[in-house]
Amino acid sequence: MPFDDIQFELVKPDPCGIIRDCILLSETRISGFMFNDDPESLLDGLHLGDELELEREPRNPYDYHAIRILDKYGNRIGYIPRRYNTVIANLMDAGKEIYCLLTNIVPYQDEPDIFVMVLMREQY
Questions:
Q1: Straight-line distance from the first to the last Cα atom of the chain, in angstroms, rounded to the nearest whole number
Q2: Which domain holds residue 72?
Q3: Fewer beta carbons below 10 Å: N end or C end of the chain?
């Protein structure tokens, strides 16, 4: 299977350098990774601890609160799961600085589980 030989370890990065300067909103598995055209190549470019970009997708026909997760090259990795995205989407729409960190990749036969921490930077 394509993802059988990938080995990763769980990483709990200090997401803001100083933990008091951010708020953890969610730790979740991303949705939709396998809908990418070339998931194996995309996975090769991901590294534990990577800061990933979040982008609102309010015109998504399936979910008004959709939040796309992008790698550093702007490639779509997946989405924040619907059950967690409403509050995060509202915070993003209000201008809060929200981002996520790649914390774990668990290989499975057909599709790896990719986990992220979603954080909000404190604004003083």
A1: 49
A2: 22-119
A3: C
Which residues in 86-112 are b (16+ Cβ under 10 Å) and which e? eebbebbeeeeebbbbbbbbebeeeeb
Closest CA to 114 of 19, 56, 42: 42
Residue 27 lies in a domain: yes
Which run of H or E residues covers position 92? helix 82-93
Strands (E), the chain: 22-29, 51-56, 67-70, 76-79, 98-106, 113-121
Task: Confirm whether 74 is domain-assigned.
Answer: yes
Total domain count, the chain: 1
For tokens 């991901």, the residue is 46
> For every one of its 124 residues, what pLDDT tens digit does the chain have, with 9 covering 90 and above?
455 554 545 455 555 554 567 899 999 999 999 888 888 888 888 999 999 999 999 999 999 999 999 999 999 999 999 999 999 999 999 999 999 999 999 887 777 899 999 999 876 6
Query: Which CATH number fits the domain that encloses residue 62?
Result: 3.30.70.2330
| Total residue length of the chain | 124
